[in-house]
Write a structure and sequence with these properties.
nine-stranded mixed beta sheet, alpha/beta
């Protein structure tokens, strides 16, 4: 190597320049430069934000208006970090009026560390109002990262008022679909919940922690940028253009993160994924992105490890009523809004988007309708990063690592999710196993436990309002004081006749906390006979049912509707308005102990049936807890779920499954006023409903209204986004009594949601659940922790259990119809229908009222009730298989099967109603019933205009029978055993079959 004076001088100059520039960086934190930010003025100052108006001297009228929202951890200067080549500079040159929301730093703002998520959403909401008033036009709302999430939330909160369009940059929506760095969601969700509850609310996240955290997310890139800076430290002219951006990333651009806001983010959008599912809460108001109807443009960074493409594209499903577009760039998270990629591509595209929105220009080809699953010919992620970073060798290694990571993460994800499910299930099963007759357990006690564990966690959602555990628990205590003040004591039976509403739940829980017995009555039912049957001493009614309750002559306590409403009947000795009682003035008696209920004690009474078949079903605290924890276990309910309670409380499915399962699982409970299909679709999205409860044919009304198109679909390139809802967050329907055909219709229309059908006996502790949901109409298998079951041979004609040679009951073979028994628990009273010595001397069992068969896989199928078996001339005929078979016919809406007495025997008769737009022919019935043995087929099938239903949506056999016998004609068919087909019933055949002239 040759040395000369020129090279030596050059080296010395380079060394001197490096030293000089390095000293400047050490003293001032960076190189001094003359690059100035864009001019702005502060138009509005509030506690939560300052509103910047850029280029305020430009008063050009009629310009489009943009409001830009930064993420919480980044300074608002992010929109101007590249000065004239930054967001506000480029947009201003494009004729756009730019306004920026500046939240400031929580370290320097008053009350900054106490800010929560709602504070920021409401701040943006206020800023939009200010800008709209100042400019007289709607705004294009833009947000980067979490700022984009705020843009979605705020627009939904204000139902789109004043927002022309939304533009987001790397803003994740579906956290489950795109966890950063491929981490398993189950693990991240649990960690996020822990951090939100125990860490971030106690430890402030400072700007230095934020800066260090972001640098640790990509340590290689951080190290590379610093090495590049040092290598070019001698070349001041090369460094100056990027100096403002470098200082922004290294120090100036980061701000602290308020703990409550971080906790909200972790809970609502990471642990519970509610930005995607709906039901996130802003100041006690549930909101869903389904409220968005304005056009949306989402920028997707193909190499963005924070706002991963799959997570960003979740907006297309979360906002089914909006037109959603995307612009995909080969950029990382920061590169979407700052740097050369943003200067050359992002902001010119935003300007063209606004021009297109104004109708002046065509949509650029880089912007296209968003699809959830993108088919692309571009290289894989690893190869894309090769081009992006120009580090071929390193990226090849990263690609191999990525493949190995994928294999490992899938395995880990499955293991963690299984472990998480076990972690939720085992404590519930353990608690079930620990319940003894003397154990204190009740509905009121479980609610109190939830309030102690998480007082601020959501419990009820009703009429677009959220009620926390603490608020509900306080309401229950106030109702208890009111009840005590009017003489209600433990063990007294109190009727509850109320519509589904928070006051009804509070009443039932208050009676439980007091130790009284709640007798749940259906509004409009036979109240006089129910009162006489159950020994009710007082009625609790809401204002809507006051008149019918007072007509019984029983003392009525009115609750619900607030203290400002008026009552149809004036207050008197027999009509007491509990809302007028001041609970703070009620002196609690010495005998009062909250939640005294023991497992063996009576907790609820359900009244079923009508007329001479009115029955009271008695439910102990143990029986309720059994169903509650069994439901929570079978449905895997947890804090991420929101359960929509369509089933009324006076039905066992509402009390035991809906309310019980949600309370035991820690899930949110959304209460529906009525079964209105239009409101149903709104509440599913707004509340983020993941589980829907039902009874009998309840879902038929939803399906017939076609409020959701069939299947879980997303827009495709051939079918661009429309205003039609095409996605739902529902994962499960749980309840009892759904017919097989309706079951299939439900799973087809709401795919991939499944049906979880329960059977819960009132006698004994039998709970069956069809957990897999594969066999439509099947009741499944016993829920772990519930009573052991056996199926014994039974003669439905004599009503006797069949025995073997030794005198013990004979167990049924597979597919043999028998009586379902449940193992009796210790201390149960067997005098009311219990059995001893069934299989061994001294054993104790409780028979149910139902007949079942067990298939070869061990699953149980309901066949009939003991008292509704049809005693035909050819032997017993079971009604449930007939009902399930007919319901599976596409044209059939509803059906009932019953025995029609003719002489000494009965004919098996089925009545069906037809779905609108369909027609039923005799050949359809002939083909359908081939699934039944000939002796089990109905003798007559006939069409009726309508089949009335009970308050629990059960088709009413009695109402059909009351309309009279089937008449000969083209809509009545009889089963000709010789031709093995159903034929039109003529007058002659009717005379022969029915004995009519």
């Amino acid at each position: 190597m040759k040395f000369n004076a020129k090279s030596v001088v050059g080296s010395v100059q380079r060394l001197m320049a490096t030293a000089q520039n390095g000293l400047e960086v050490i003293r001032f934190g960076g190189l001094t430069h003359d690059v100035e930010g864009s001019p702005f003025e502060i138009v509005e100052r509030r506690r939560m934000y300052r509103l910047r108006h850029y280029f305020p001297d430009d008063t050009t009228p009629g310009r489009p208006v943009a409001v830009l929202v930064p993420p919480l951890m980044v300074n608002a200067d992010i929109w101007d970090v590249n000065a004239e080549d930054g967001a506000v500079g480029i947009l201003h040159r494009g004729g756009i009026d730019c306004w920026v929301v500046d939240f400031g730093s929580p370290a320097s703002e008053e009350g900054g560390w106490e800010r929560d998520l709602a504070d920021h959403v409401l701040a943006i909401n206020s800023a939009i109002d200010t800008v709209c008033d100042a400019t007289g036009s709607s705004v294009h709302l833009m947000g980067y990262s979490q700022g984009g999430m705020f843009a979605y939330q705020t627009t939904a909160y204000r139902f789109g008022k004043g927002v022309e369009s939304i533009v987001t940059f790397g803003s994740p929506v579906d956290v489950v679909a795109g966890m950063p760095f491929g981490l398993p969601y189950g693990m991240v969700s649990d960690v996020a919940e822990f951090l939100a509850d125990h860490v971030v609310t106690r430890l402030p996240i400072t700007d230095s922690m934020v800066r260090l955290g972001f640098q640790m997310l990509d340590p290689m890139k951080t190290a590379k940028s610093r090495i590049d800076f040092v290598r070019q430290l001698h070349d001041r002219e090369a460094l100056l253009p990027k100096e403002r951006q470098r200082r922004f990333l290294n120090s100036d651009g980061w701000v602290g993160y308020a703990g409550p806001a971080a906790a909200d983010l972790l809970k609502q959008f990471v642990a519970h994924n509610r930005l995607m599912l709906g039901g996130f809460v802003i100041r006690d108001q549930p909101i869903s992105l389904a409220e968005l109807k304005c056009p949306i443009l989402a920028f997707v960074g193909e190499v963005d490890d924070i706002g991963q493409p799959a997570a960003v594209r979740g907006i297309v499903r979360a906002a089914p009523n909006a037109e959603v577009y995307e612009a995909s760039l080969v950029a990382g998270h920061f590169g979407l809004v700052a740097g050369s990629m943003a200067t050359r591509h992002t902001w010119p595209l935003v300007r063209q988007w606004i021009d297109w929105m104004d109708g002046d220009q065509p949509l650029p080809p880089e912007i296209a309708p968003m699809t959830e699953h993108v088919a692309t010919n571009r290289p894989s992620s690893a190869a894309t990063r090769v081009v992006h970073t120009a580090a071929t060798l390193a990226e090849a290694g990263a690609g191999v690592g990525k493949a190995l990571e994928g294999i490992a993460s899938n395995t880990v994800r499955g293991s963690i999710e299984l472990a998480g499910e076990a972690a939720r299930t085992l404590p519930r099963l353990t608690r079930l196993g620990m319940i003894q007759p003397h154990t204190r357990i009740s509905l009121g006690r479980l609610v109190a436990e939830q309030a102690r564990r998480a007082p601020l966690r959501d419990l009820f959602l009703f009429d677009d309002r959220v009620h926390t555990n603490a608020a509900v628990n306080a309401r229950i205590d106030n109702v208890v004081r009111g009840l005590i003040s009017v003489g209600i004591r433990p063990a007294i039976r109190v009727g509850v006749v109320m519509e589904t509403r928070p006051s009804a739940l509070a009443t039932v829980a208050a009676l439980s906390r007091l130790g009284a017995v709640a007798v749940l009555l259906a509004p409009g039912s036979e109240l006089d006979r129910a009162i006489e049957l159950t020994g009710i001493k007082a009625l609790v009614s809401d204002p809507e049912n006051l008149r019918s309750a007072a007509a019984t002559g029983t003392r009525v306590l009115v609750l619900g509707g607030g203290d400002a409403r008026t009552l149809d009947i004036p207050v008197s000795e027999n009509v007491i308005d509990l809302e007028q009682i001041d609970p703070t003035q009620v002196q609690l008696p010495a005998w009062y102990r909250p939640d005294p209920g023991l497992a063996r004690e009576l907790a609820f009474v359900l009244v079923t049936g009508t007329g001479d078949r009115l029955e009271a079903k008695y439910i102990t605290n143990h029986r309720w807890a059994l169903s509650a924890f069994g439901t929570a276990t079978s449905a895997d309910l947890d804090r991420k779920d929101t359960v929509l309670c369509l089933a009324p409380l006076h039905h066992s499915s509402g009390l035991l499954v809906s309310l019980g399962g949600a309370i035991a699982g820690g899930s949110r409970i959304a209460l529906a006023r009525s079964l209105d299909p239009t409101r149903f679709v709104e509440e599913v999205h707004r509340y983020g409903v993941t589980v829907v409860t039902y009874t009998w044919t309840m879902l038929r009304d939803i399906l017939d209204a076609e409020v959701f198109p069939a299947g879980h679909r997303s827009p495709t390139p051939s079918a661009p986004p429309t205003a039609t809802p095409m996605w739902h967050p529902i994962r499960l329907f749980i309840g009892s009594g759904m017919p097989a055909g309706l079951w299939r219709r439900t799973t087809e229309q709401f795919a991939p949601a499944r049906v979880l059908e329960f059977y819960a006996s009132i006698e004994g502790d039998v709970v069956l659940a069809n957990v897999t949901g594969v066999k439509a109409g099947c009741k499944g298998r016993p829920v772990p922790g519930t009573a052991k079951v056996e199926l014994v041979a039974y003669d439905p004609v004599t009503g006797q259990i069949r025995t073997d040679a030794s005198g013990f009951a004979r167990r049924c073979a597979d597919n043999e119809v028998g009586l379902l028994l449940g193992k009796a628990t210790e201390g149960i009273d067997l005098s009311d229908g219990g059995l001893r010595g069934v299989f061994t001397a001294g054993d104790a069992w409780m028979p149910t009222e139902n007949l079942f068969r067990r298939d070869g896989d061990g699953d149980y199928w309901l066949v009939d009730r003991r008292d509704t078996v049809i005693h035909s001339a050819r032997g017993p005929v079971f009604t449930q298989p007939i009902v399930d078979t007919l319901n599976d016919i596409t044209a059939v809406d509803m059906e009932v099967a019953y025995g029609l007495p003719v002489g000494e025997h009965a004919l098996a008769v089925a009545a069906v109603s037809i779905r609108k737009g369909f027609r039923l022919e005799p050949k359809d019935v002939t083909e359908a019933v081939r699934a039944l043995d000939p002796d089990q087929r109905p003798d007559i099938v006939y069409i009726v205009d309508e089949i009335p239903r009970s308050s629990s949506y059960r088709p009413s056999t009695r109402a059909v029978q009351a309309k009279g016998r089937p008449r000969p004609g083209p809509d009545t068919w009889w089963y000709n055993r010789e031709s093995d087909a159903y034929e039109v019933l003529t007058e002659a055949e009717a005379a022969a079959l029915l004995g009519t002239d």
